[in-house]
Design brief:
single chain, alpha+beta, Beta-Lactamase, 7 domains, 7-stranded antiparallel sheet, 5-stranded antiparallel sheet, 24 helices, flat
Length: 931
């Protein structure tokens, strides 16, 4: 306890020492503050003395717009009793007119600077008022300072100067001369009203502005050297065309007079401008007209000499004395300076005579003599000059009387244009047109010309052939009147005419259905072009029409074929989708059965189930593949039929046996109506059973459970007719025409309960057609069943004796004598699977994966049967067969081709093999070969 008390005492002593140190510091700080206050008091006394002693009115305002203090001089601006320090600024009574004072002080206190303002006093004085903020030590605005500077003397001076300037302005404004004063910085100090009007400005707008802004840079650049000369002290006077900015290009007489002070310094210059534009232009115009007259006289002389037409001038009323230019002399075949007048003194020596319309003209009938005598113009008078050497020239003459200043005729001027070449060219042109008309008339293209109202102007012989109307009949009517365009073509016809006549197009092309005179309609391709005169008015339209009915029929056929191809392509795409679906359906149970067997521990029931699934689905896959191959063979024309006389009734029964299990599983009732005797046809029994089973299979598949299917066979009119009718789902009538196309089925959903590739009816139609028969399909619609009728030609003669059908077994299941078999295939799985099957049948089997292995194994194994794949990796099966044919042991074995393609794909090389099998090869095929 004593120790704790001692510790507390020590802490108290320590705290007391700290307080003593703090008291010492506070004492020192207090002394400093006292010194600072004394300094501030001294400063404040100095400031007070300054404010009291200044003659400038100054007023201090705090942030609340209350007056803090003012200088004594400020009281001269206040009315007696106008206020006191501490009152609001707005309450002060001023001898000034300053309504904005309070607002502008508030702006300064808010941090917005204001410009100084001139304010008047009520005693005629003027003051320049300024407002400044003053800030505290922290930089914040702590108030505002207002000062007033007396500017009364300056305002009086300015007013006197304004009076003098006004008097000067009135004097200078009365003068027509442009007057201005420019300072040394090239700015306007003064200008009169005429100067401002000249530039289209107000006088106040010019004063103080740079000279370049008013004159414009281009004019300023031209006069600046003269201005600098005036600023240097030299007066100058000059005339110049100047492109003024506001007054346009003007010609002016300008004088610059230096503005000197008493000490000789130049402060600027005076400008005197007199607009002499009109005077200068008049002088220039007179000079220009004189020059033009001289030039025109020269030009006329030059034209007279250089003109390509003959020009003749008669100096008297009888045109006895005439001058002519060089071209005129050449036309008349005379020397240039001779007298060409036929009424002149040298007329008998002239080498030509003048004719008109086949008659020689007398002197008085010549165009120049007529114009001079009658005082009238003569235009486009056709003449022929006949020269002594037989040359004839064609001319066009014009003449006009020459009158003096009193209007009296004193002579004549004549012009001769040599149109010999043009006349001959026109003659050739007409001949060409005639030839062209003959060609156009012989052309298969109808040519017709028509006016804006569609009235016909020309109708070619080809048009007569194309449309049937004669030229006389057509030219009495119009395009509308002839009825060339049927009702459904009138709108396109109106559009075509409107575009041509309205000037929207100058030419167009269109295909139209046209009606001939006999009422037949034909397709014509029209090509139209517009001819217009120099003023753009329509003269006529030329139409060329070509009968393209044949081409249109061909194009229609091509479009139909394209649509059919597109539809076939669409069905192909659907078929590929269906094919993937149909191939996956049997593969799924096969895969499941194999997976179940792979699990092991299978009893006989499970094994039988798995084998049954694999067998059924494999047969289903075989049927799909065989259908595809059959369609391909039929399409290529490569299918082979083994034609023989067959009992069609027996084949119907065999087909029923094929579908009997499926029909029984669905609970269908089968009704069979066959004649008692044989119905003999000629055909391939296997293919006919395939046809019948396909039709029956469709009936079973598309009939709901517990349905009824009736099968009948009749013989009449030399044909056998098989009918299969069901009460199933039926077919929409619009779908029937396409059901016989490859890969086509009736309406179906994504569920695809029935499945199939849509090849059955295609095979039926083609196989029946190969037997010379036909197929008919009928349905009253969905839900009303379907009836299929197969018709075959009868074969005269007795019925076939054999009763063995295509479905009869080729042998029993008991294995025969063991054989040596060589299997060659590039797929190890195929070799292994076939080898296991053959060994199970009691045969000795060897395998190979290439053509080279096959050739080597033949000598080593000495097989009795070779199953040879055609597609091998090194050399194909055909080449292997070709090499084996050269060996002596070839007769000791049978060589069988195994391929996914039909035997027709082997071509001539099929003779190298003893037989041909399609993949996949079944056990029945192998047994048949081995036996």
């Amino acid at each position: 306890m004593t120790r704790e008390r001692c510790s507390t005492d020590d802490e108290l002593k320590t705290a007391g020492a700290g307080r003593q140190v703090l008291n010492d510091e506070l004492t020192a700080m207090n002394a400093r503050l006292i010194d600072r206050v004394r300094e501030l008091e001294t400063t404040n006394e100095v400031l007070d003395a300054l404010l009291v002693g200044t003659e400038v009115p100054v007023l201090f305002v705090d942030p609340r717009l209350r007056v803090r203090r003012w200088t004594p001089a400020t009281e001269t601006l206040l009315r007696p009793g106008g206020g006191e320090p501490g009152c609001p600024l707005a309450d002060l009574g001023w001898r000034l007119e300053d309504a904005e004072l309070v607002d502008e002080v508030a702006m300064v206190l808010a941090g917005t600077p204001v410009v100084p303002r001139e304010v008047p006093g009520d005693g005629g004085q003027w003051f320049l008022r300024r407002i400044r903020p003053y800030r505290s030590g922290t930089g914040q605005i702590d108030g505002a300072i207002i000062t007033w500077t007396d500017i009364t003397a300056r305002k009086l001076t300015e007013a006197a100067q304004a009076d003098r300037d006004h008097a000067l302005s009135r004097l200078t404004d009365a003068l027509p001369v442009l007057i201005s004063q420019v300072d040394a910085s090239l700015r306007y100090r003064f200008n009169n009203a005429a100067y401002a009007r000249w530039f289209g400005l107000d006088p106040a707008e010019i004063r103080g502005r740079p000279v370049v802004d008013v004159l414009g840079e281009e004019a300023f650049a031209l006069v600046r050297p003269r201005m600098e000369q005036a600023l240097a002290g030299s007066a100058c006077r000059f005339d110049a065309w100047l492109p003024y900015q506001g007054a346009g290009t003007r010609c002016c007489q300008i004088e610059y007079i230096p503005d000197r002070r008493d000490n000789g310094t130049v402060d600027g210059f005076f400008v005197l401008v007199i607009d002499i534009t009109e005077r200068r232009r008049n002088a220039e115009e007179i000079a220009r007209l004189n020059a033009e007259n001289r030039a025109r006289a020269g030009e006329l002389r030059a034209v007279f000499e250089a003109a390509p037409v003959g020009i003749y001038i008669g100096r008297d009323l009888e045109c006895r004395n005439m001058d002519m230019n060089r071209a005129g002399a050449e036309i008349l075949r005379l020397p240039e300076h001779s007298n060409p007048s036929l009424s002149g003194p040298d007329a008998t020596a002239l080498p030509f005579r003048v004719f008109h319309a086949g008659r020689e003209l007398s002197t008085d009938e010549l165009p120049m003599q007529v114009a001079a005598r009658e005082g009238e113009l003569v235009h486009d008078f056709h003449e022929e000059l006949h020269f002594a050497d037989g040359e004839v020239r064609h001319l066009i003459a014009s003449a006009a009387p020459l009158r003096d200043e009193t209007g009296e005729v004193g002579g004549c001027v004549g012009i001769l244009a040599d149109v010999t070449r043009a006349t001959r060219a026109e003659r050739r042109y007409r001949e060409t047109l005639e030839r062209l008309k003959l060609h156009v008339d012989k052309s298969p293209v109808a040519s017709l010309e028509w006016a804006a109202d569609t009235s016909l102007l020309r109708w070619s012989t080809a048009a007569e052939r194309v449309f049937g109307w004669s030229e006389v009949e057509a030219l009495r009517g119009s395009l509308r009147g002839l009825g060339l365009f049927p009702d459904d073509e009138r709108e396109p016809f109106a559009d075509m005419i409107g575009a041509l006549v309205g000037g929207l197009v100058e030419h167009n092309q269109a295909l139209h259905l046209n009606r001939r005179k006999d009422g037949e309609t034909i397709w014509c391709e029209w090509h139209n072009s517009v001819l217009r005169d120099a003023d753009g008015r329509l003269v006529s339209v030329l139409s060329l029409a070509l009968d393209v009915s044949g081409q249109q029929a061909l194009q229609t056929s091509l479009r139909r074929q394209a649509e059919q191809l597109a539809e076939a392509d669409r069905r192909k795409d659907e078929f590929l989708s269906m094919l993937g679906h149909e191939l996956r359906n049997p593969l799924a149970p096969v895969r499941n059965a194999l997976d179940r067997l792979a699990l092991g521990e299978t009893d006989q029931t499970t094994l039988d189930w798995a084998l049954g699934v694999i067998d059924r689905q494999t047969h289903h896959l075989e049927r799909l593949v065989h259908d595809l191959l059959d369609v391909a063979r039929i399409t290529r024309g490569a299918i082979e039929l083994k034609m023989a006389r067959q009992d069609l009734g027996r084949l119907v029964r065999e087909a029923l046996e094929v579908v009997e299990c499926e029909a029984r599983a669905r609970g269908h009732a089968l009704a069979l109506d066959l004649p008692p005797g044989a119905v003999v046809v000629r055909g391939d029994a296997t293919r006919l059973v395939q046809v019948l089973s396909n039709v029956l299979h469709n009936a079973v598949k598309y009939t709901d459970r517990a349905g009824r299917i009736a099968v009948g066979l009749v013989e009449e009119d030399g044909v056998a007719r098989v009918t299969v009718a069901d009460d199933g789902r039926g077919i929409p009538p619009d779908s029937i025409p396409t059901l016989f196309e490859p890969f086509t089925q009736g309406p179906r959903s994504l569920a695809r309960v029935e499945g199939g590739l849509g090849l059955g009816l295609t095979l039926v139609k083609n196989l029946v057609g190969l037997h010379g028969g036909s197929v008919a399909l009928h349905s009253d619609g969905v839900g009303h069943g379907t009836r299929v009728t197969l018709t075959f030609p009868l074969d005269a003669g007795p019925a076939p004796e054999t009763d063995v059908g295509p479905g009869a077994a080729a042998g029993d299941d008991a294995p025969g004598e063991g054989r040596r078999v060589l299997i060659v295939d590039d797929s190890p799985d195929v070799v292994e699977a076939a080898s296991e099957l053959l060994r199970a049948l009691g045969h000795e089997v060897s395998g190979g994966a290439s053509g080279a292995e096959a050739l080597e194994a033949v000598s080593r194994v000495r097989p009795e049967l070779i199953l040879l794949d055609i597609g091998l990796p090194d050399i194909d099966g055909i080449e292997v067969a070709r090499r084996l044919a050269e060996r002596p042991e070839r007769r000791a074995f049978r060589l069988v081709a195994v391929s996914g393609y039909g035997v027709s794909s082997l071509g001539e090389e099929a003779a190298l093999f003893d037989a041909h099998l399609l993949k996949p090869v079944g056990v029945a095929d192998l047994k048949r070969l081995l036996e």
